Amino acid sequence: MSCGELTTHARMINPGPNPKDAVMNLFADIRLLVLESLDAMVTKGALPGGLAMANVTVEPPRDAAHGDMATNAAMVLAKPAGMKPRDIAAALADILAADPRVISVEVAGPGFLNLRLAPAVWQGVLGQVLQSGPGYGRSDMGAGQKVNVEFVSANPTGPLHVGHTRGAVFGDALASLLDYSGHDVTREYYINDGGAQVDVLARSVYLRYLEALGQEVAFPDGTYPGDYLVPVGAALAKEKGDAWVDQPEDVWLAEVRTYSTDAMMDLIRADLASLGVHMDVFFSEKSLYGTGRIEAALADLENKGLIYEGVLEPPKGKMPDDWEPREQTLFKSTAHGDDVDRPVKKSDGGWTYFAPDIAYHFDKITRGFDALIDVLGADHGGYVKRMKAAVSALSDGAVPLDIKLTQLVKLWKDGQPFKMSKRAGTFVTLRDVIDLVGPDVTRFVMLTRKNDASLDFDFDKVLEQSRDNPVFYVQYAHARVMSVLRRAAEAGIAADAAALKGADLGLITHESELTVARKLAEWPRLVEIAARTNEPHRVAFYLYELAGDFHALWNRGNDLPELRFLQPDDVATSQAKMALASAVCVVISSGLGILGVTPVQEMR
RNA sequence: GGACCGAUAGCUCAGCUGGAUAGAGUACCUGACUACGAAUCAGGGGGUCGGGGGUUCGAAUCCUCCUCGGUCCGCCA
């Protein structure tokens, strides 16, 4: 029986988070204890009533030597209570010390309270992990809030490249994280099939069509010369024969455009699938035109007095060559935090790109989402304020929009930078990356960096098997657990889910073992922080730390045989230790699940 | 000219939305193999958190002004 089987089994019994028994966050429990103790002080008159407790935190101290948990309660309350922090701390310490979970309380520094918890608490954490399986760390924090995560949304003009890959991985992991923390998540892709770039695509495909019929063609500037359009042109030639040869654009453009964008979306869907990304909704920009939906969204803004005819100030400094003052239809985005108002109509009367985007977000709002998240490339940075302004205006401030920008990915191979250029048709594609290193490595590596910092992706380094490579290091820890469980089976020691749930966890007492349990106790809290900040990279870093604690314990078994997971002639102790290993395995599996990475059974 | 994002150990990066003596990895020294393998672990040295000012019990974190990189800037999406 493996951890993988264990979790699969548990998932069958318990298909989702169950808020009733989903407490499981030890830090939240202890914070509750602190708050209750403060109440008791108020009752006794040792503290004035009516104090705001929102800033009282219980956290793991930065330095483990300070204890297991630290609270800032005394310092936060000192000023409003008109008391000295250390006095509050001392009184609070007395009350906390009476709790059976607490074995020592110390006042430290300016008024921190450092708590040490009984081994039984940490043993209890292990029991919770095994009981809850993949449910351990899931929370109802999101309270079923409907969240829309829009990501990738690449123009349907070619295969996805590396920049899109980062957005795809980030968006997908963020969506999983939000799901894991109790949100009702929709993954969505906005297809930009309504603008001029799909006409360019259609003309490019038309050239490939002529080429397939034997003509010599050249690709002028402003067309897409990439090879990926060759089969599209060929398919078109097969279907239509020479019907469109020497015909003007108005004969074939619309049909080729539809045909081509469909073909590109098939390509993009396949690219995403190779990364393990699956969208719930593909939303077509084109569906907004000629249907009154753009007009409806702008009418909503107009009713709020936010649409007017006016002339924008010329940009200061760098002046466009052909600048001339021009009266335009403008959205008063400055009323919602933007720097300048934004045009929604071009001088020829057509919509600017911003108009359908407003309508699209209006549509999301009317679909009833409680929160919106857009994942965009760094080149859309200038777009954030106006979109937030639009959503704020359309929803009367009721629906928050968070825009996460993913910064550039710099590719390295053999010590040389890889360049990409979409125009030249020589960009490095998502498929190139997957073929070289596989989806698991791609995903994990792209999540080991904050989204708003640029990322170096070194093809050689990400495949390296060393501690320097977090993908390997975390997978290795998982594989080691698998190995122990396999060996237990060979030795005839029961290590199935039922046996481990019944193990006597009181046998887990060594400091190295408890360190691992402490790290496991942090998981639910970590998930909440990561979900609150929309930062899935925190999960990747946590897993790396957990793996580190586990490897440390493992290797101490070299010096101290009593720390080895399998104890000959002592089934009970072996099972307790394997319960610990399995708990590590469960959390690694859950964490990797959020990142979209498959845990390995053994290293090759 | 303006907007947004970065800047933390020689190098690559974390840092819990304001907490204690700022942490990992790598590299460099010193040690350790009966399990998934030394592909790992234990220990050591290594810092003006880009710079200046401010806010307060307390700042890498918040506000402000600079410096250097990146992205972008009305009829392209």
Please provide a brief summary of the model:
This protein is α/β, with parallel strands linked by helices and 604 residues long.
Poorly predicted runs: 4-23
The radius of gyration is 29 Å
Name the CATH superfamily assignment of the largest domain. Answer: HUPs
CATH fold name of the largest domain = Rossmann fold
Determine the strand fraction and express it as a percent band: 5-15%
Q: What distance separates the N and C termini?
A: 21 Å
Main sheet summary:
5 strands, parallel
Average residue pLDDT: 88
Helical coverage, percent range: 40-55%
Query: Can you count the beta strands?
Result: 15
Question: Helix and strand layout, with pairings?
Answer:
Elements lengths: L2 H11 L12 H18 L14 E2 L9 E3 L1 H9 L3 H13 L4 E7 L3 E6 L1 H14 L13 E5 L11 H19 L3 E8 L4 H17 L17 H11 L8 H27 L5 E4 L8 H11 L3 E5 L15 E5 L10 E2 L10 H13 L4 E7 L6 H11 L6 E6 L2 E5 L2 E3 L11 H17 L8 E4 L11 H21 L6 H5 L9 H23 L3 H23 L11 H25 L9
Parallel strand pairs: 5-6, 5-11, 6-7, 11-12, 13-15
Antiparallel strand pairs: 1-2, 2-4, 3-4, 8-9, 9-10, 13-14
Helix pairs in contact: 1-18, 2-4, 3-4, 5-16, 5-18, 6-13, 7-8, 7-9, 10-11, 11-12, 14-17, 14-18, 16-17, 16-18, 17-18
The protein binds one RNA strand of 77 nucleotides through helix 3, strand 10, helix 11, helix 14 and helix 16.
